[in-house]
Design goal:
The protein is of the alpha+beta class and 137 residues long. It contains 3 helices and 5 strands, in the order H-E-E-E-E-E-H-H. A 5-stranded antiparallel β-sheet has the order 1-5-4-3-2, with no helix packed on it. The longest helix has 26 residues. The N and C termini lie far apart (113 Å).
Length: 137
């Protein structure tokens, strides 16, 4: 009797005020009330993974639900969220590479073009100074 209870002990358990969200996808395969407390049973959505989760939802004296979460086994695959995020990051990196490549082919202005622009601005400035000077006289 004692050996079976020890083998059935969860690998991890905790209590929280918020519903559990560990990033994995879970399939609910059962529910029941134990000592008037709702209990839900979940297994990992992947058939090759043996991870299990149990969620009890007792209501505290303050009327708020406290979630008691227990886990058995470990996942044999990466988090689905991490896989999705890494795909997005790879796509974003490819986008940045293509943008960098597109901009590297754009001709940058040469010094002489910049100097010409500067000279035009200087000429305009000189003309304005002359006009103001002439008006003052």
């Amino acid at each position: 009797g004692t050996e079976k209870k020890q083998a059935n002990r969860p690998d991890l358990e905790y209590t929280s005020d918020v519903p559990p969200n560990d990033g994995h996808k879970w399939l609910k395969y059962g529910q029941k009330r134990v000592r008037d407390i709702p209990r839900e049973y979940f297994r990992c959505f992947r058939d090759d993974c043996k991870a299990r989760k149990q969620v009890e939802k007792p209501v505290g004296e303050d009327g708020k639900i406290r979630y008691h979460i227990s886990y058995w086994g470990t996942h044999t695959h990466p988090l689905p969220e991490i896989s999705r995020i890494s795909k997005v990051l790879r796509t974003t990196e490819e986008l940045f590479k293509s943008v960098r490549a597109a901009f590297s082919s754009v001709k940058k202005p040469t010094q002489t073009q910049q100097e010409k622009k500067l000279t035009k601005k200087q000429k305009r400035s000189q003309c304005r100074k002359v006009e103001i000077y002439c008006e003052l006289e």
